[in-house]
Amino acid sequence: MKPYKLRSMSVENGVRTCVELPLEFEGERAFVIWDSVRLGSYKFKARLEIDPHLLQKTQPNALEFLYSGHLELPRPQNN
After folding, report:
1. Spatial separation of the C-alpha atoms in residues 50 and 56, rounded to whole Å
2. Shortest CA distance to 7 belongs to which of 76, 77, 64?
3. Where in the sequence is the domain holding 57, given as residue range(s)?
4. Are residues 67 and 7 in contact, defined by beta-carbon separation less than 8 angstroms?
5. How far apart are CA 10 and CA 55, in angstroms?
6. How many domains does the chain contain in total?
7. Which residue from 28, 25, 7, 24 is spatially nearest to 71, judged by alpha carbons?
8. pLDDT tens per residue, the chain (79 residues)?
């Protein structure tokens, strides 16, 4: 099965861009995958939980969702 994708609009320094990230579900919860790293047979994921009620399918049978909430991604320069 293909992975789910999330699309959302982003504004930074007055510039609008479209953000596309992998999306995962665990029961009632939804997560976007900000980054992932493989180490041998393990895969480590940096996940951010989002409000699943703010997701909308782009088409009835599509695997893509539009997110209408506020999505604030961590910035490496702030760590």
Report:
1. 13
2. 64
3. 4-64
4. yes
5. 16
6. 1
7. 7
8. 568 999 887 777 778 888 889 999 999 999 999 889 999 999 999 898 999 999 998 888 788 898 888 777 766 665 5
